[in-house]
Write a structure and sequence with these properties.
CATH topology of the largest domain: TIM Barrel
Strand order of the largest sheet: 1-2-5-8-11-12-13-14
CATH architecture of the largest domain: Alpha-Beta Barrel
Radius of gyration: 23 Å
CATH superfamily of the largest domain: Glycosidases
Distance between the termini: 23 Å
CATH class of the largest domain: Alpha Beta
Strand content: 15-25%
Shape: elongated
Largest sheet: 8 strands, parallel, barrel
């Protein structure tokens, strides 16, 4: 299915000293990311934000159609750059075979131009929006509570929430997504905070009959529904009921299991493999990840041996997403070596296909095989949670009389190359990984 790159982290323009130049900075990395094997780029929100306390990451949308071309909210460009620079990035990414995913924030708005009294409540709120783009102006009727619905699914701070049941709002959101796909050039959406509105909005956006260059175009979609696997899948199945273009969801439960593996002493790999996750329950609907922009508060980021987590998502089913800050700032790419994210991305793209079969599982050792499919021959993955020694086990594989070589590996204290391995006429062989490490083997 490919590998996604989340191309930002919180306050990235300031932290990386690229204020108003982020689009150009991403564009500089496009050729190398495509060469490494990435297939899609998830961009931060592209519209002009409210910027109430200075430049923001865009999760406080003001003008959906200002991509950095109108002088409002303190600047002409967004914190990431101008519209022209964004369009150059999109063109460059497409020319290198990368698709673009827009982070679309349609639950709440911020930065209104004037307060209004909502006649339903008699209270004043900042709900009058007259954006300079001239598109999608809003007043109190566009927000909760409205004449069209009394229940607001979930609020986000004190920002007014759009009332999607208002036919005007509903139509404007579809116009917006059509514009992003057909004119701006995005290939799909990451839906922010979908808990805040009905799943039917996502169904409509996913199912809309888009046209690009005179041909039908089907966008990709993934939702942020931060909850248990059961609750997330309830939402996914509701959104995908009678939906010919199903939406995926980020696997937050799996991410917490991955954090446990990396950061908790004595964590059992049985919990990682058999624990609550979307990947385990419904692999076709999951986007797996290790870190994202929201996991920045104290206690939330993974602090130990993060490559173990990346080795898991980049060998298993699901659509894996790599975090920009891990790849670049924390230098986990480890280019031109078998010991980092780059080698795992290559293994994913060349070999990680077909069903996942558990060959061995105990508290400290996990061995699985991907059976392979359509040119991708499959792999054997070994995860060793023992902190003291190399560890391995005899297992029965699908490959008889085969020779295996490692293509990606890492150990906390030992990154020496694992030895080649062989299976006998019954497909049995012995596979090892370094202490507190992993190894990925493929048939030679």
């Amino acid at each position: 299915m490919g590998v996604m790159m989340q191309t930002f982290h919180w306050d990235c323009p300031r932290e990386d000293k690229k204020e108003f130049q982020w689009w150009n900075y991403i564009n500089e990395q496009v050729p190398a990311l495509a060469k490494a094997g990435f297939t899609s780029l998830w961009l931060p929100p592209i519209h002009k934000a409210a910027n109430l306390s200075g430049p923001s990451m865009g999760y406080d949308p003001y003008d959906f159609y200002d991509l950095g071309e109108f002088d409002q909210k303190g600047s002409i460009p967004t914190w990431f750059g101008t519209r022209q620079e964004l369009e150059t990035l999109i063109e460059s990414a497409h020319s290198h075979g990368l698709s673009l995913i827009a982070d679309i924030v349609i639950n709440h708005n911020s930065g209104a131009d004037m307060q209004e009294v909502n006649p339903i409540t008699g209270q004043s709120r900042w709900t009058l929006f007259n954006p300079k783009s001239g598109k999608f102006p809003r007043n109190w009727e566009s927000f909760h509570p409205s004449m069209y619905e009394s229940w607001d699914e979930m609020t986000f701070g004190d920002m007014p929430d759009l009332s999607h049941r208002n036919p005007y709002v509903y139509a404007e959101l579809l116009k917006l997504t059509r514009w992003l796909i057909e004119e701006v050039g995005f290939d799909g959406f990451r839906y922010d905070f979908v808990k805040g509105y009905g799943a039917n909005t996502i169904t409509a956006i996913q199912e809309y009959r888009y046209m690009r260059n005179g041909k039908p175009f089907i966008p990709y979609g993934v939702a942020e529904y931060w909850d248990s696997a059961n609750n997330t899948l309830h939402w996914v199945n509701e959104a995908n009921f009678s939906n010919s273009n199903p939406v995926d969801a980020f696997d937050f439960p799996l991410r917490e299991l991955l954090k446990g593996m990396c950061d908790q002493y004595g964590f059992s790999l049985k919990n990682l493999v058999n624990g609550d996750s979307i990947l385990r329950a419904q692999t076709q609907s999951t986007v797996t990840f290790v870190e994202n922009h929201d996991l920045r508060d104290e206690g939330r980021p993974i602090t130990n041996d993060k490559l173990l987590a990346y080795s898991y998502i980049l060998t298993h089913e699901g659509y894996p997403c790599v975090f920009w800050k891990d790849y670049f700032n924390y230098k986990l790419a480890l280019k031109d070596s078998p010991n980092g994210i780059d080698a795992l991305v290559q293994a994913h793209e060349k070999y990680a296909a077909g069903s996942t079969d558990v060959l061995h599982l105990d508290d400290n050792l996990y061995i699985m095989q991907r059976a392979g499919y359509d040119g991708q021959r499959g792999l054997i993955y070994v995860l060793n949670n023992n902190g003291d020694d190399w560890h391995g086990q005899w297992v029965s594989t699908k490959w008889a009389n085969a020779s295996f070589r490692p293509v990606a590996w890492w150990g906390k204290n030992d990154i020496s190359r694992p030895a080649d391995q062989f299976t006998n006429s019954d497909g049995r062989g012995q596979f090892f990984a370094p202490a507190r490490g992993y190894a990925v083997y493929v048939v030679q």
